[in-house]
Amino acid sequence: MPGIKPSTSLTSLMMDKQDVTLTSLTQYARRPGATQSSLLQSARPAAPEEKRNVESEEKKTLPAPKKKRKKKHGITANLSGTRYEVIRLVCEKCKFDICKEDDPNSYLIWSDSFVSADRITELKPFQRINHFPGMVEVTRKDCLARNMMKIQRHHADEFNFVPKTWILPADFSLLQNYGKDLKAKKKYKTFIVKPANGAQGHGIQLFRNAEKIPPTEHFIVQEYIDKPLLLEGYKFDLRIYVLVTSCDPLRIFIFNDGLVRMSTDKYVNPADPNLSNLYMHLTNYSVNKHNEFYQKGDSVETGSKRSIRFLNEYLRKNDFDIVLLWRRIYDMVVKTLLVAQPHLLHAYRMCRPGAPAGSDSVCFEVLGFDVLIDRKLNPWLLEINRSPSFGTDEKIDFDIKSALIEDTVRLLNIKLSDKRRNYFAQKAEAQKRLFRTTKRNEADMTEIEKKKQSIEKRKEELREQLARVRKATAREDFENRNAGRFRRIFPSEDKLKQQKYVNIMSSIFGIVMSGRAPAMQKEIQKVYNNQFREEDILDLIAECEADEKDGKLGSKAARGPKPLSSMPISLPSPPTEDEFDEEEEEEDAEYTSPPGSPGLNRRESRPPSTKSRPGSLRPDSRVSNDASSLCNSRPNSGVSSMRSRPTSNMSTVNSRSKSLSRLHGKQSIMQRSLIDDNFLITVVKEREDELTKKTLQALNDMRIKFPGKTDQEAELILDTLHENWKFHKPRIASYWLVKLDSIKRRKVIDIVRSNVRAVLQRIWRISDVDNLRLYRIFTRVFNRLLWSHGQGLWNCFSTTSQNGSWETIFSKSSENICENEFNCCRRIVQLCRDCLLIVYQFAAEAKSSSQQNSETTELSSAGTLSSRDKASSALMAPHNTQTLSQRYSKLYPRADTTAT
Ligand code: ADP
What we know:
The chain is an alpha+beta fold and 900 residues long. The protein is built from 32 helices and 15 strands.
């Protein structure tokens, strides 16, 4: 990657040029009372004010050199969200342009805090941000415990690396019973109580008697690992750095160094008198630095903070099996992230609908795993930090963290050309969309044409598959060459282990996703078990071509591309380099040509003749008012004719443009390309506007159906609920915000979502609506409605603001939303509101009927609850596909109009 010389280490940089900066940085940190900001200021270059003074002094003596304002053309990094100087130093070393402000269009965005789903949705494919949506499922202590417990129930032996945990107050009575059991057996255990969302050792307490632990909200209780491995008599834990570069598919790396954080009072077994000695029981730097015995290390071998490399050496010398230890740690890390995977994948796909499978991930994350090792060399996962500290108080911090960030940035493989690649991909996508609408009706086709179409379709699928396989191979190759001090632990090189992980992942999806699991499990086997090899796909493509040539289509066999021509057919005409002079002065050596880019191998990217280019449709394609027909003239349209007479006779345009392009040579080609772009954009826009209007119409016609009732009755129910709003409001709020869990809330929204998808499929005539801009906009609205445990939808019921607060998702967006698109969103919000009310009423009626039954069948109140729950989930849950799809179709009187 540009700017990083693999041979130069940051340490060497620190020792020479940056010496002053880093010394001051360390000194500031050592001075008591120095704040982080003062520390950072000291490390930053002189303020502009100071600089100006220096410059004016110089001017008096030296002739002012002619200043050239250099434009920034490089890879940009937005570091406004991070307070860590070391990240800035690494980015500078990589020759990134650091943005002064919060530039949302930067190539790299690094933030210390949580990043909203909206922000991730808005990212362009060439951007990278340092958090995944959904990672909270393993980075909050209570979420980690909850998710682990769920999986432990099915795989107790595989997931035995988390201390036994209780989430308060829900598990309070279980904890009490556990304490009583221990007492009865005359056993004594120690418990550690921690805030669910705490950090740096805040609020932690130890107890010897479980019965004395109060049922405090948002706390967790863990069994205390009371026989930790000791280092020179001190308890320690490990800070292990793990990098996730993608979740679709999952790729995990572990850094080969990290921190060993020691406590500062020698360890003795927990007993009542020492329970409050946190300098003995906790290993946090933030706690122990306050102890007078805390030692700042001058090397990695002394002091209260050491390196993992040192620990390995120490253990080896003391005859510990470190290979076994690290095998266990790798296994623990992979399994933990397998637990997170359903959440990561789901959240990522929600934020990035339409992103082709296997495409570069816009998210990455450096996680800090806190791991304790016991005397039997078992690793115990204490917690995972999603924003591990990159503070560099000591030299050891700087050495390890700077190398970590440098290798992370290298693995991200950010290239200047990514932006251009994105531009072409969007353009190709726009063309694809445009031409898709011209598909002929099957009924009008001859048998031969139908066969030809099916072979073409199959070939296109195979080409896409081939592109994916090649991309995966290229990625792996890149990782192997650029991993630096990282080691990839998933997918694993060890085939047996990989198979085991794939099976575990598959099982976890089954546990977490229930109804939707089979499809995902199939996908998992396909993606992670390397079922497709390049040669196999090439053979299949060759077979398709042979079918065509063997006359299976009749006498006139189509001339298809050779087997290696594996890229999509519909590609835009390549613009010249000049178009991008502004943006790109230097080109990356590792740049691999995107479809349609100037550096593309044309044999691979395009069919041999211009016949199959998107602009030159078959003569029998529909003309006149069909948008695509306008494009018949596109590749040959001349500059002047297009400008002066956009609607002029196309044949004249064609002939004129041919001679013009010959005359003007390269320049003319460039201009033509620009005009082509504008023309194409206009045509696509018009067509999209028209289809958006139709979508709005269809959405306005949609109604939420109450099972077993007519539309009028359903309307009446909605009216009644609104009329008695004061009465129903608290009940609906508690139903939506408290009683329904996140999965059920999502299912309510999914009732509307699945029908909206069907509308889009029908009107836009495509099966994969994820790629539609309009659907991406809708996804943001759906995400907003589910925001903050459903608060998003509940806000839409607010009477003070007619439309609730969902509209704000567009106020900060750089995207322009047209009126019809906005009205579609408004209608969707309305449908979701109605849907919640109907589901609520349905559940209420189910409850009252089950209560009536209970009088006769004497059901317990718990039974009544669960049957009510069943009723509501039966209405919503998509898992019982057969009956539910029938149910769904009942939900909408116009389901026939929404289905394709
Ligand atoms: P925080 O996020 O506040 O740092 P941790 O869960 O990391 O909370 O716990 C802080 C410290 O407490 C750990 O570094 C470790 O030394 C100790 N600790 C936490 N949980 C346990 C446990 N179950 N057994 C033994 N020690 C623990």
